[in-house]
Structures are given as structure tokens and as C-alpha cells.
Specification:
The chain is mainly α and 564 residues long. The chain is built from 23 helices and four strands. The protein folds into two domains: 222 residues, MFS general substrate transporter like domains (Growth Hormone, Chain: A); 220 residues, Growth Hormone, Chain: A. The strands form two sheets. A two-stranded antiparallel ribbon has the order 1-2. Strand 1 and strand 2 form a beta hairpin. Helix 15 runs antiparallel to helix 22 and helix 17 packs parallel to helix 19. It is globular. The two termini are 44 Å apart. Keywords: Membrane, Transmembrane, Transmembrane helix, Transport. Belongs to the major facilitator superfamily. Sugar transporter (TC 2.A.1.1) family. Its main location: membrane.
Length: 564
């Protein structure tokens, strides 16, 4: 790595001496034309380390918090209802776990003398309201997310990019501590029919424990919402233009890996059990704890340093990231973009009013909204329920859930390559068309299977799962990574903080709507719920087909020319 002695400065303009480029380990080389000069744009060990530390400390954690609860819902729902004992479970899969690990016996009329052996049945007229209450922990996660995303603009402006990432970490650390506490102060482990004394002892700290649980989920969501703004901005600003899409997509890749790891940890053979689910939802706090230490060895965003008039530091940081002295063209490009922009960041109200930001904002909001209104979080939060409705039983549900995580990961890895080969627009438009077809087909399959006798359900259930997996593939190659990349590419520097915060706010708000309404809608209209998703996807397809530009390897003025 070049020494700081190898540069001289005149009136704050940097004129690095041309020295031999050091030999460093790199991965994957591409080139981009800046002005008349061709420069290397490549993965370097410094860039790779920065990406890994950031996404493991933030994006991966967000993925675990999305994927894990799906497998713990069978324990969380009765626990929050005030029924903490092992056999108090509903649903075929949860009762299978209770029978296998806690030797529960169902349909035994000699048990349940005090009403705490079996889970009380919910009357049909109360079912929709109860489903709303049961989804509250996921709803609070999402509410925390869109508040965290909206606040991102202020962290973005008040702190450096690196410091803003650090600020998101303590929220998850505290959330994990609260989650550990919950099951220690309120639980029931009595295998037999519990007597009144055992019930009273178990229920002593119920309200405090449930409050800790809900606060924990809110804080996890707040941290995740912040990370969608501050982490993606940092990744965008440290990456060379030729790798901007790939580096930006690492945020989504880490989320996807986190979802899969969360699903694996949540299996009953690991931590997905009545007495261990709190550890399954809290262990991930170790990563931001480690990340809060390692973050200080990472370089600051060179673009932010130039915004702050720290030209020399920006030059040093860019050399460190590129592991090359040949950074003049890229440095000039950043300086030109910054000098063309307003010196002050624009408030959200002004971005909403100015015509020049109208279509960047509308298309970003549509992309981020449809990412959630496509129904993807319904799959990852509630796929266990979905597979049960489709016809899967007992432990087969777990293999269905794991299949969603594995397929999602494979498709996202493929998307990292495709996003720089095919560009952003084709990976959004045509998968959206495919999702419409899949959702209609899935509706037909689930409705047909609902009328089948029990012994004939499994065949159509498997076909339904195939349709869900196709949906995940179509989502992962486009709607998964591209909204984060696109929203960072289409806004001028002075509008980026506000534009990105608005986009992430809409993303989390739509996630809130899906999380809040999916279970009640599923209870009310069953398989037809997927037609609701297909309607929103069709609207987004129509608008984006006409108004979404290609942004791959394009400068800002080239992107903006599409709307003129």
C-alpha cells in the first residue's frame, strides 16, 4: 500500500506521484472508462474486508431477525397469549415438536384440569382479531424498521458514514440482551398437567417478560431499518463504479444468508424448541458487538470526506480501498459530482417539491414498495403457516421452509453476476411479469387443494411449494437486491439522504402492512390472499415498464436524461 509520503499537495489539490502499483491479492477484475482514461476497477482485499465486516454486522443480522421468527412462531404465539407450558401448542407442526421433545399426549380427556395443558381453542368469530395480536411481535419489528429507516437521513447527515453504521449496532445488542431475559423470567416447563401453584409461579413475571420481548423486537427492527440506509450508502460510496451494483447487492446477499442461517438455527434439533427459542433469536447480537470493535479499522467513505472538504484524507482512503496509486480519474469524478451538487443536503419536503427529483423518487418508492407488497415477507415470516395451509404436515414443513432459504440464497448469488451483465431494468421488469403468473397459479392450487380429502393433499401441496420456490427465485434475482442499488444511483448527492430515507421508509411501511394484514387476510379469504399480491405486482410492472431507466455503469446525468 502506498505511503502518505508519496503525495504532495498544492492549495488542497492532490497530485499523487506515480509509483509502482503494489501487488495485492484481488478477486475479479473489470474496467470502466472515466473521461479518456481507462483505470482498473477491481475487488481488493481492503474493499472485500470492508464489505464483509459491514454486512455481517448489520445486513446479516437483519436477515436472521427475518428468517428466525418463522420457526419460533409456534412457541411465541402461545407464550404471548399467556400459555407458556410445553403442550400448549396449536398446529400440526408445533404439536409434533411437543410430542417428540416433551412427550405431550393430545386428546387425553383426563388432562387439562386447570386449562393449562392444552392451548384453548379460538372461536371463529375471534380468529381474525387474535391473528392480529399473534402477529404483533413481527409488526413491532417492522414498525421499528420504518422508524429506523426514516431516521437514517439524520444519522447520515450528523455522523460520518462509518460512524452512522456504528450507531446502528447498540440497538441490536440491547435487543439481544432483552430477548435472553424473556424466557428466563417467564416460562413453564412442566411436562405433566400443571397444578395451580405451578401455574401461578410460571405466570408471576408474564407481563414484564412480554414487554421485554416486544421491546426487543422493536429495537431489532430499528437497527435493521437504520442499516438499510447507512450500510447501503457506505457500500455504494466505497465501491468503484464498475462494481457498484455487485457491492451494493452484497447487502441483500447478506440478508439472504442471514435468513437461511436463522432458519437452520430455528430447527427443533438445534434451538427451535420450547425452552431454547429465546437463544435462537438473540445469539445474533454477538455480530454487532464484534462489529462495533472492527468497524474502526475500516476506511471512511471517500465521497463523504470530499463533501467535508477533507481532500487529502479522501485521497488516502481511496488509495487504501483501491490498493493503487492510480486513483486520480476516480477522485476527479467524485469531486466533479460533488461540486455540481448543492453544498447542503436537501430536506425531505424540498425533495418532494422539486420536479428534478420527481421520477427518481417515484420509481424508487415503487421499487421499494413492491419489494414488500409482492408478499416476500409473508413467505419468510409465515411460510410455516403457508405450507400447512398448502397441505404439508409435521416435520415436512421444516424442509419446505429450509428449501425457501436455500433457493433464495442460490438465486441471489446468481443475481450478483446478472446485475452487472444484464443491468437493473431487465431484472426488474421480466421477473415482475413472472411473479404475476406464479401468484395466480398458486391461488388456483391452494383453492383446489382445500377441497381435497386429507390423504390427497400432499401431491398438490408439493406443486404449491414449487410455485412458492419459483416466486422466490424471481424475487431474488431482481426485487431482492436492485431496489437498494437503484435508490443509491438515481439521486443527486444533495438529495440522496432524503431520497434514500423516503424509499426505505416506504419499504418498511409496506412490510408493516403485509406483516400486519397477512394472517387476518389469510384467515378471511384463505388462498385468495395471493391475488392481492398479484394485483400490486401488476400495477408496479406497468409503471416501471414505462418509467424505470437502466442505471448500469451510467453517470447521474445519463440516468436523468431518460426522464427528459
Amino acid at each position: 500500500m502506498s505511503s502518505t509520503k508519496d503525495e504532495s499537495t498544492v492549495n488542497d489539490e492532490i497530485t499523487p506521484l506515480q509509483t509502482q502499483i503494489p501487488s495485492e491479492s484481488t478477486v475479479g477484475i473489470s474496467t470502466v472508462d472515466v473521461g479518456d482514461e481507462m483505470i482498473n476497477q477491481k475487488w481488493t482485499s481492503s474493499l472485500l474486508m470492508s464489505v464483509i465486516i459491514v454486512v455481517l454486522s448489520t445486513s446479516f443480522v437483519m436477515g436472521v431477525n427475518i428468517g428466525g421468527p418463522n420457526l419460533y412462531n409456534g412457541f411465541i404465539v402461545p407464550w404471548t397469549r399467556g400459555h407458556p407450558f410445553p403442550c400448549q401448542k396449536e398446529g400440526n407442526t408445533s404439536q409434533w415438536i411437543a410430542r417428540k421433545w416433551w412427550y405431550c399426549v393430545y386428546n387425553d380427556t383426563t388432562k387439562n384440569t386447570n386449562g393449562y395443558y392444552y392451548l384453548p381453542e379460538i372461536l371463529k368469530k375471534n380468529l381474525i382479531g387474535q391473528r392480529l395480536k399473534d402477529s404483533l411481535h413481527n409488526v413491532l419489528f417492522v414498525i421499528g424498521g420504518f422508524i429506523g429507516a426514516y431516521s437514517g437521513q439524520y444519522w447520515y447527515r450528523c455522523l460520518s458514514r462509518r460512524n452512522a453504521i456504528f450507531a446502528s449496532m447498540p440497538f441490536q445488542i440491547v435487543a439481544s440482551i432483552f430477548m435472553i431475559i424473556t424466557l428466563y423470567i417467564y416460562h413453564g416447563y412442566e411436562i405433566n398437567d400443571p397444578d395451580q401453584e405451578t401455574i401461578d409461579k410460571a405466570m408471576k413475571n408474564k407481563d414484564v417478560a412480554i414487554a421485554f420481548f416486544y421491546i426487543s423486537r422493536f429495537l431489532s427492527g430499528f437497527s435493521a431499518g437504520m442499516c438499510c440506509v447507512v450500510s447501503t450508502s457506505y457500500l455504494n460510496e466505497i465501491s468503484p463504479r464498475a462494481l457498484r451494483g455487485t457491492v451494493g447487492s452484497c447487502h441483500q446477499l447478506a440478508i439472504v444468508i442471514g435468513i437461511l442461517v436463522g432458519q437452520i438455527i430455528g430447527l427443533p434439533w438445534i434451538l427451535g424448541r420450547h425452552n431454547a427459542w429465546n437463544w435462537g433469536m438473540s445469539w445474533v447480537g454477538l455480530l454487532p458487538l464484534i462489529g462495533s470493535i472492527l468497524i474502526w479499522i475500516l476506511p471512511e467513505s471517500p465521497r463523504w470526506l470530499i463533501q467535508e472538504q477533507k481532500q487529502n484524507e479522501a485521497s488516502k482512503t481511496l488509495r487504501k480501498l483501491r490498493q493503487s496509486n492510480n486513483i486520480e480519474a476516480e477522485l476527479v469524478e467524485i469531486q466533479e459530482e460533488e461540486s455540481a451538487a448543492s453544498k447542503e443536503n436537501l430536506e425531505i419536503s424540498k425533495v418532494l417539491r422539486l420536479n428534478e427529483f420527481r421520477w427518481p423518487l417515484i420509481t424508487s418508492l415503487i421499487l421499494n414498495g413492491i419489494q414488500q407488497l409482492s408478499g416476500i415477507n409473508a413467505v419468510f415470516f409465515y411460510s410455516g403457516d403457508m405450507f400447512s395451509v398448502a397441505g404439508l404436515r409435521e416435520e415436512k414443513v421444516f424442509w419446505g421452509i429450509l428449501a425457501t432459504g436455500v433457493i433464495n440464497l442460490i438465486a441471489t448469488i446468481v443475481a450478483l453476476k446478472l446485475i452487472e451483465i444484464l443491468g437493473r431494468r431487465p431484472l426488474i421488469i421480466w421477473p415482475l411479469a413472472g411473479i404475476i403468473i406464479v401468484m395466480i397459479g398458486l391461488t388456483i392450487l391452494i383453492v383446489l387443494n382445500a377441497n381435497n380429502p386429507e390423504h390427497k393433499k400432499e401431491a398438490l401441496a408439493i406443486v404449491s411449494i414449487v410455485f412458492i420456490l419459483i416466486f422466490i427465485i424471481l424475487f431474488a434475482i431482481g426485487l431482492g437486491p436492485i431496489p437498494y442499488v437503484y435508490s443509491n444511483e438515481v439521486f443527486a448527492v444533495e438529495a440522496r439522504a432524503s431520497g434514500l430515507s423516503l424509499a426505505m421508509f416506504i419499504n418498511w411501511f409496506c412490510s408493516f402492512l403485509v406483516t400486519l394484514l397477512f394472517l387476518p387476510l389469510q384467515s378471511a379469504i384463505e388462498g385468495y390472499v395471493f391475488l392481492v399480491f398479484s394485483f400490486f405486482v401488476a400495477l408496479a410492472f406497468t409503471l416501471l415498464f414505462f418509467k424505470m431507466p437502466e442505471t448500469k455503469n451510467k453517470k447521474l446525468h445519463e440516468i436523468q436524461a431518460f426522464w427528459k
